[in-house]
UniProtKB/TrEMBL annotation, chain A:
GO molecular function, one term: zinc ion binding
Keyword Metal-binding: yes
UniProt cross-references to Pfam families, sorted A to Z: DHOase
Dihydroorotase catalytic domain residues: 45-233
Details of cofactor binding: Binds 2 Zn(2+) ions per subunit.
Cellular component, GO annotation: cytoplasm
Active site: D303
Protein's GO biological process: 'de novo' UMP biosynthetic process; purine nucleobase catabolic process
Catalytic activity: (S)-dihydroorotate + H2O = N-carbamoyl-L-aspartate + H(+)
Family note: Belongs to the metallo-dependent hydrolases superfamily. DHOase family. Class I DHOase subfamily.
NCBIfam families associated with the record: PRK09357.1-1 (NF006836), pyrC_multi (TIGR00857)
Name by which UniProt lists this protein: Dihydroorotase
Keywords: Hydrolase, Metal-binding, Pyrimidine biosynthesis, Zinc
Automatic annotation (TrEMBL), chain B:
Organism: Streptomyces mexicanus
Protein's name in the database: Aspartate carbamoyltransferase
Positions annotated to bind carbamoyl phosphate: R55, T56, R105, H135, Q138, G271, P272
GO MF term set: amino acid binding; aspartate carbamoyltransferase activity
Tagged with keyword Transferase: yes
Catalytic activity, EC: 2.1.3.2
Reactions it catalyzes: carbamoyl phosphate + L-aspartate = N-carbamoyl-L-aspartate + phosphate + H(+)
Functional pathway: Pyrimidine metabolism; UMP biosynthesis via de novo pathway; (S)-dihydroorotate from bicarbonate: step 2/3
Ranges of residues in domain Aspartate/ornithine carbamoyltransferase carbamoyl-P binding: 3-147
Automatic annotation (TrEMBL), chain C:
Protein name according to UniProt: Bifunctional protein PyrR
Enzyme nomenclature, EC number: 2.4.2.9
Function summary: Also displays a weak uracil phosphoribosyltransferase activity which is not physiologically significant. Regulates the transcription of the pyrimidine nucleotide (pyr) operon in response to exogenous pyrimidines.
Domain Phosphoribosyltransferase intervals: 16-159
Alphabetical keyword list: Glycosyltransferase, Transcription, Transcription regulation, Transferase
Alphabetized Pfam families for the sequence: Pribosyltran (PF00156)
Reaction catalysed by this enzyme: UMP + diphosphate = 5-phospho-alpha-D-ribose 1-diphosphate + uracil
Family annotation (Gene3D superfamilies): 3.40.50.2020
Amino acid sequence: MSKILIRGAKVLGGEPQDVLIDGETIAEVGTGLSAEGAEVVEAGGKVLLPGLVDLHTHLREPGREDSETVLTGTRAAASGGYTAVFAMANTFPVADTAGVVEQVWRLGREHGYCDVRPIGAVTVGLQGRKLAELGAMHESAAGVTVFSDDGKCVDDAVIMRRALEYVKAFGGVVAQHAQEPRLTEGAQMNEGVVSAELGLGGWPAVAEESIIARDVLLADHVGSRVHICHLSTAGSVEIVRWAKSRGIQVTAEVTPHHLLLTDELVRTYNPVYKVNPPLRTERDVHALREALADGTIDIVATDHAPHPHEDKDCEWAAAAMGMVGLETALSVVQETMVDTGLLDWAGVADRMSFKPAQIGQATGHGRPVSAGEPANLTLVDTAYRGPVDPAGFASRSRNTPYEGRELPGRVTHTWLRGKATLVDGKLT
Amino acid sequence: MQRHLISAADLTRDDAVLILDTAEEMARVADRPIKKLPTLRGRTVVNLFFEDSTRTRISFEAAEKRLSADVINFSAKGSSVSKGESLKDTAQTLEAMGVDAVVIRHSASGAPYRLATSGWIDAVVINAGDGTHQHPTQSLLDAFTLRRRLIGPDAGLGQDLSGKRVTIVGDVLHSRVARSNVDLLHTLGAEVTLVAPPTLLPVGVETWPCEVSYDLDAALPKCDAVMMLRVQRERMNAAFFPTEREYSRRYGLDADRMAKLPEHAIVMHPGPMVRGMEITAEVADSGRCTAVEQVANGVSIRMAVLYLLLGGNEPAVTHSRTEEK
Amino acid sequence: MDTHAQAEASAARPVLEGPDIARVLTRIAHEIVERAKGADDVVLLGIPTRGVFLAQRLAAKLEQITERRIPCGSLDITMYRDDLRMHPPRALARTEIPGDGIDGRLVVLVDDVLFSGRTIRAALDALNDIGRPRAVQLAVLVDRGHRELPIRADYVGKNLPTSLRETVKVQLAEEDGRDTVLLGAKPAAQGGHQH
């Protein structure tokens, strides 16, 4: 394989340096490196980050190839600077057997845009009643380490306890979609001032918080670790903060959209803002940003949820929940965390690459940008600012809440083990 | 006025008074031998009802026909909608047939707003009730009834409802009538008090421009009108209140409670009434109950709204009475 | 009245003043009595806004002459106009038909200015929905010509030959604080009460 010299890149936002890639690994990091025999990429002060890792992506294949496939989803990931994504289990059929997870894993390998790590369902068919064969999925070629019924909450306390205990045998982690089902029957949006006016069924914060409170106590009791998906309320932050202070093994993620958008947008009744968990209030947004900055929330995960146009071009109640996010995540994080001074680029690398790789045990990802490490890298033009144009998305779906919104930052290059998947903003 | 009528909250005080004044003139047409005006001749209005409501549909239809509009009734039941056709497709199909206005009733809150703002169609959209959101013509006819009864048909012309006290009782949480009335009555200067068990009030109600109370008996002696909302028996099963008997004892209007109202105060109900639940038969049939009058006023209000939105080349402007010849 | 309209009004030339208006109304009242043979069954219907005041003044004069009560009401023609689609909808004025109705009676429509004739066409349509008069006649304060329909007035206060570039503006004490008929140049912008 050839050599690539990335010249003058601000590694993790630091002083400009040169990074030499040789084959699949980083050969050298320093200043004034020789370009001999290497293809040169002039970074010109762009920020170089370790390849991003998304612990929460919906690739939709198998079953909903009209909204996304492993190919289109991993191309979107590469466009957004990702080198590894964890694919959620709520496909058709559900990823609750070794067969399905291996299929998804293999498709990711074949396409080569981004490593795909399948997530296994906790319960058979996401039904919440019977544990899926978690061990078999772990032992399969896909090597599943993260289990989740995402989209549905494992609301039965006994099933949740057993799952937390069972995965200890092979070091797995259960990622909980925290949503008390009875409290959210008919729920359409965050319950509060706006839902009262709009007459849309309220989705109370307590429906999320009560499950998180229960699950951190369960994790503590059985000595397991638990991961909380898409935490969305100020109250959830307080519970996780408390749990961490007690030494409970809990990690948590926040989505880019919950860092930026509020339920005021629902006043448009435009289903592009319909998402699970729902957009919350300004107060929640600020609590989430602070928690991500101080480490209470460990990572940013996209909850990239593609839907075909017709599932959003309808009345609110009939619309599907979810937003695409892979191709805008880094921009939203720059807008909400970096440009606000809450996080530096080293912090972004930590929240979007190091930590998610660690939680998901994505070997070879989330490594420092230094000699001898796998060359999973992404180069970001942080000085750019412009409107989001969904027409340019690599994702098969366009359900972004940011259409036309000006956001900073643009990923120009992505390398997966030394191979460029994105060059000058174009997929290879 | 805005081009569509989606929410009572979109109406200014002057818009609302113009509609009430116009309805007052429309009401007089009902007393004439020929109850018909040529105003909307050649205009086509579709009543697009995704939710059963014979009362509201008939009221709109009567208003449309009195203004000589061509009327198409579209009910979702037994249509392609039940076969999975979307709101968008249905609306576009109707517009392709040359519809000038869509009167829409839908179980999904915000469906009329989507129809008016998503660029699917060009027609004027009139909300005939959406989910638990809004029912603006109901609140207009309620305001019209209040003004006629408390001020007078002629004395009320040009007037709002400043200083009038209205108590709205019942299932506020699930009521588009309550939401529309809080918005409109506040705009018209009335003081609104909501009375309901706490389970039937939405979280966030404290930001609404009204008072909230759990005590009906305390509210009654101070009001000029009490508006009873329908309470559906299904709510009991979802634990919003323990039993029908307990609900009617605490929040129902019976003759004893009616006696606590000031002499001039009226009892309103948007219908259909659940006798024995929120209102006793004795109160419903008394001279103080305006339920039947509200139905008649509904036609006048809907004629006024149709005229002001469809009668010209653009929506009505509040100030002008031009007389060019 | 806004300052713009005031400026126009001051530039306009009065063609009838208060005493002239009173005199022509008296004459019209006598003509009605004469032609209607005592005005036994006359009902006066003014077309809002200024036609209503003229009808009331005529009724008062007729009552002086005949020493009987003359039924007098108003007929709003807004909903019957043929130019509804060309403007935003107008606020409606009152239609007030006197208690005994118009069936079998002689209805005299009263308006301030007769111009294209379209208002009177609309008034005839409106009457049709209210009842069946024995006959309908028309009284106007000013006839400025330029008819667009085969309509003529039975009683005219003043025939006023005008150009289409001119405007005729009637002011009455009840609405405008003074009685006058002004002839002016057509303003650049449309609006106001010019005819």
